[in-house]
């Protein structure tokens, strides 16, 4: 566990989790419990696309839902650390324009996002789609149906290779289809090029988003951005929630130190 954050930093920020495609916010329950025991408030949101019956909705629909949830917290004057997993990275990038702490302070407003942590997540440039980011073709494990939805065909290996069997089975049973539109929508905002503090948490043994791709996305971030590695599959919130909580706490300390130095 990292050293405690000094009370001189003021009220601790709220840690807000955004899941990836097919998953619900319950996947973060264990890491949220650990962080709560350390004094952090936590929140997590579902995505509109997960389990949707409308094949036309995609990234922007998910981003609108997340943005609405963030605004409610920020407008109360609170500061946020955002943890975005997998496809959730694309969602959060498109949800935060105008919500950064520096942007808010420049307008005389309190509260805001102090950092975005991409957890084995897509951090792609604006004017790019997820499909383009993976090379322009559907990935082999994307099971695309004729009615416009996609489900993972081998989640046990792709997502949960190091997860305890009963928990992996529970996770697999809870997966829900998403519209294939999520890979086609064009991203409209890249926070790292617009004044946001960002960081990346690498999953070294990831079979869904290869570590080389994760590192390539991190290479876009400004010098001095936080990074950390976990020797996990795509789902460290299941296989090593304690180590993930430690990493989130370290990233929060990093962001608070940079915030207070400005």
TrEMBL record:
Transmembrane segments: none annotated. InterPro entries: AB_hydrolase_1, AB_hydrolase_fold, Sec-Metab_Biosynth_Hydrolase. The lineage of its organism: Eukaryota, Fungi, Dikarya, Ascomycota, Pezizomycotina. PANTHER family: AB HYDROLASE-1 DOMAIN-CONTAINING PROTEIN-RELATED, ESTERASE_LIPASE_THIOESTERASE DOMAIN-CONTAINING PROTEIN. This is AB hydrolase-1 domain-containing protein. It comes from Xylaria multiplex. Residues 15-246 form the AB hydrolase-1 domain.
């Amino acid at each position: 566990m990292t050293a405690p954050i000094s009370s001189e930093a003021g009220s601790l920020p709220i840690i807000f989790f955004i899941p990836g495609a097919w998953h619900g916010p319950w996947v973060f329950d264990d890491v949220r419990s650990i962080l709560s025991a350390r004094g952090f408030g936590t929140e997590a949101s579902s995505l509109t696309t997960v389990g949707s019956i409308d094949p036309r909705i995609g990234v922007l629909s998910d981003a609108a839902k997340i943005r609405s949830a963030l605004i409610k917290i920020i407008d109360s004057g609170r500061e946020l650390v955002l943890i975005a997993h997998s496809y959730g990275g694309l969602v959060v990038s498109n949800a935060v324009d105008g919500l950064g702490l520096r942007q808010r302070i420049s307008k005389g407003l309190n509260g805001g996002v102090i950092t975005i942590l991409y957890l084995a997540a897509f951090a792609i440039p604006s004017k790019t789609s997820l499909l383009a980011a993976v090379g322009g073709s559907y990935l082999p494990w994307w099971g695309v149906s004729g009615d416009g939805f996609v489900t993972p065909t081998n989640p046990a290996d792709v997502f949960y290779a190091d997860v305890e069997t009963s928990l992996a089975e529970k996770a697999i049973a809870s997966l829900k289809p998403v519209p294939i539109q999520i890979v086609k929508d064009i991203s409209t905002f890249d926070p790292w090029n617009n004044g946001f503090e960002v960081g990346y948490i690498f999953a070294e043994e990831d079979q869904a988003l290869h570590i080389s791709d994760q590192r390539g996305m991190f290479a876009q971030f400004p010098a001095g951005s936080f990074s950390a590695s976990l020797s996990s599959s795509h789902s460290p919130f299941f296989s090593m929630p304690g180590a993930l909580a430690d990493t989130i706490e370290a990233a929060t300390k990093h962001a608070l130190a940079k915030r207070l130095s400005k």
